[in-house]
Amino acid sequence: MIAADLFFTTPDHLLDALNKPQIRYAIKLSLISCTITTILSLWVGVPMGYLLARTNFWGKTSIDTVLDIPIVLPPLVIGLSLLILFQTWPGQFFEKNIFGVTFQIPSVILAQFSVSAAFAVRTMRVTFEQISPRTEQVAMTLGCTRAQAFWRVALPAARRGLLTAATLSWARALGEFGPILIFSGATHMRTEVLSTTVWLEFSIGNLEAGIAVSLLMIAAAVVVLILTRTLGLRGTGLV
Fold first, then answer.
1. Does residue 238 form part of some domain?
2. Taking the model in full, what pTM does it have?
3. CA proximity to 218, closest of 179, 174, 167, 186
4. Which of 107, 212, 234 is nearest to 168 (CA)?
5. Cα–Cα nearest to 109, from 28, 176, 23
6. How far apart are CA 126 and CA 179, in angstroms?
7. Do the domain assignments include residue 185?
8. How many domains, the chain?
9. Domain span including residue 227
10. Mean pLDDT per 10-residue run, the chain (239 residues)?
11. CATH assignment of the domain containing 162
């Protein structure tokens, strides 16, 4: 399939696509939104993954199941659910009194985060489960608090998993389409990202530009796969 894309397009098609202001805007917004989404996903994924890996509590199975729902849920359903969420009175209150979300740039980040965070949690949980808790216990016997043991022992030991979670979250955010299309729209120079650019170009019959953008996304995916396999977590079922 990739070979077919390569034979269909030419370097000139790629350059023509990159010269379009709306595609350059889509690239810029994709890079910014994916980076913000990755930071937010790690902010949630690290503590949640550590909690699920190190503690047992009532309702753990239910929480674990809920966190995996975005991974298996149809993307369009996620986008529709987010759209309905902001039609409720709490969502409308938020948009009227704090800042707008629906069909604006924050909606792109939220749509990406809704799926990427699940991958970050799952990756970090596997990472912490592979790290022996004995080193943390030794640190606590030497005077460290639980928080200090986490920051000084567990987190440094999980750095490979942290980088893997970051790359997976970033790549998943880059490839997100369904939720963004429903929740954010695909408006030129506003909420257009690379995934929706492909759809927009195909919808007007501009196959060359659509495939050129697709090749950019394929290249990003290849880089991410190389990074995840280099950083580790092979054999965990995540990559």
1. no
2. 0.86
3. 174
4. 234
5. 176
6. 27
7. yes
8. 1
9. 2-231
10. 68 81 92 95 94 86 87 90 92 89 93 94 92 88 86 89 90 91 89 91 84 86 78 51
11. 1.10.3720.10
Triad 19, 177, 4: Cα angle to 5°: 60
Q: Confirm whether 237 is domain-assigned.
A: no
Residue in the structure block whose two tokens are 């954010």: 184
